[in-house]
Design goal:
Layout (H helix, E strand, L loop, with lengths): L62 E3 L13 E3 L3 E11 L2 E13 L3 E10 L3 E12 L2 E11 L1 E8 L4 E4 L6 E2 L5 E2 L2 H12 L9 E7 L4 E16 L2 E10 L8 E7 L5 E8 L5 E10 L2
Parallel strand pairs: 11-12
Antiparallel strand pairs: 1-2, 3-4, 3-17, 4-5, 5-6, 6-7, 7-8, 8-9, 9-10, 12-13, 13-14, 14-15, 15-16, 16-17
Length: 290
């Protein structure tokens, strides 16, 4: 679903492939996650593409606009974009028998016509991994202009709408810019806005599909809507609608999102699970006014 400051003073969790849905490659060498004081080769993966809840006071400035049919099955009729907010998370990750802790923060800013999103996962001694997405809010939903993923060095994707292409600073092959295309951070905000705008159109079993841009390539994400669940998180108890992205390739992660109605359908929890069972679990702990 995004995802772009300096490291925080908390520990946490990594692999050289594109992260799943808005995730953070291991904050050690260059992969989805963040970790504590361990060697990069043995560090686990912490979720970069995690985003969480919005409190009542942060939901004031909301924008509603028509949603394009290409974004989902069935078609969406309206989006409700959350107001500007800062979301704080705890991250727990495992690598074999070891467990790691980190902190994460999502800064979401929008003025009704443009947006700026920044997601940081930071670990003590290892630094931070940062994803950013900037773009416009239009009649077609979130329209990204630039997506970047940074750990020590930055790689970025540029949405060149005049050429109908997406190009990459990593010199990987350019790809066609398709209608409704999102990046790994904006996709999470887009999901939240879609479901907040028309929650009745997404019953259990609904498939929501995005062409999604990462820092080096594009892939198709299919998320399946599940049931509403009650979560007990550091920030409090709340109900949240669960969505799941199953692995499509041998090295893909399973992505689970919990979107909370009382938090403007922003994720209260994001969990990434590797094929071997290692996971990174990002959970909402607080919301602040930016």
């Amino acid at each position: 679903m995004d995802p772009n400051s300096g490291p925080a003073s908390d520990p946490s969790p990594s692999r050289p492939t594109e992260p799943a849905a808005s995730t953070l490659d291991n904050v050690t060498a260059e992969v989805p996650g963040a970790a504590p004081a361990v060697a990069a080769a043995s560090a686990p993966k912490a979720p970069m593409a995690a985003i969480a809840s919005v409190s009542d006071e942060a939901q004031g400035a909301q924008s509603t606009f028509k949603a394009p049919a290409q974004f989902a099955t069935p078609a969406t009729t309206a989006y409700t974009v959350p107001g500007s907010t800062r979301l704080k998370y705890n991250v727990i990750a495992t690598k074999g028998s070891l467990s790691f802790n980190a902190r994460a923060e999502l800064l979401w800013l929008q003025d009704g016509s443009s947006y700026d999103a920044r997601l940081e996962v930071s670990a003590f001694l290892l630094g931070a991994r940062i994803q950013t997405s900037t773009g416009r809010l239009t009649a077609d939903g979130l329209e990204p202009k630039r997506f970047a993923d940074k750990f020590r060095s930055e790689v970025a994707a540029h949405f060149e709408r005049d050429k109908r292409l997406v190009t990459f600073s990593a010199n990987t092959p350019q790809v066609p810019l398709l209608a409704g295309m999102q990046d790994q951070l904006s996709v999470v905000m887009q999901l939240s806005a879609m479901i907040a705008g028309a929650p009745g159109q997404y019953p259990s079993g609904t498939a929501i599909t995005f062409d999604t841009i990462g820092p080096r390539s594009s892939e198709k994400w299919v998320l399946i809507v599940g049931e509403e669940e009650k979560l007990s998180l550091p920030g409090g108890e709340l109900l949240a609608l669960k969505l799941t992205r199953k692995p499509r390739g041998e090295f893909d992660q399973t992505l689970e999102l919990w979107l909370a109605p009382q938090l403007a359908y922003l994720p209260a929890r994001i969990k990434l699970t590797e094929k071997d069972g290692d996971y990174a679990d990002q959970v909402w702990r607080a919301t602040e006014t930016p």
